[in-house]
Design brief:
By secondary structure, the chain is mainly alpha-helical. The chain has one domain. Helices cover 58% and strands 0% of the residues. The longest helix has 29 residues. The relative contact order is 0.18.
């Protein structure tokens, strides 16, 4: 599923979350936050790459640096991405909806 379609109903502002609900699966707030942080980083990289690719379509190369081209399409695309919720908010919602797959490496299993 596309990130942009996932965030359609998501509030762009920070919301208080129930810690009990967050740690329900991992039983450890630090593990939960680590999972969310890693997913948020993935989302951030994906969105940045996607934005860069879309803006590249409208890029105009010129010989002089002083020439500034104002492209309305580029401005609209940039504004759209600025209005998207923060990647941490997106990752938190994905975690709560159990849309994030995570696993532990073998070392952790052996310690428990």
């Amino acid at each position: 599923m596309d990130i942009k379609s996932k965030v359609q109903g998501l509030e762009a502002n920070l919301q208080a979350r129930d810690i009990g609900e967050l740690v329900q699966d991992t039983e450890n707030i630090y593990e939960t936050l680590n999972i969310i942080a890693k997913r948020a980083k993935q989302i951030s990289v994906d969105l940045k790459q996607e934005l860069h690719n879309k803006l590249e379509e409208f890029a105009v190369t010129s010989d002089t640096i002083e020439e500034v081209h104002e492209n309305k399409e580029q401005i609209e695309i940039s504004k759209f991405y600025e209005r998207l919720p923060n990647p941490v908010l997106i990752a938190s919602q994905e975690y709560l909806e159990k849309d994030i797959y995570y696993r532990y490496n073998d070392d952790r299993k052996n310690r428990d």
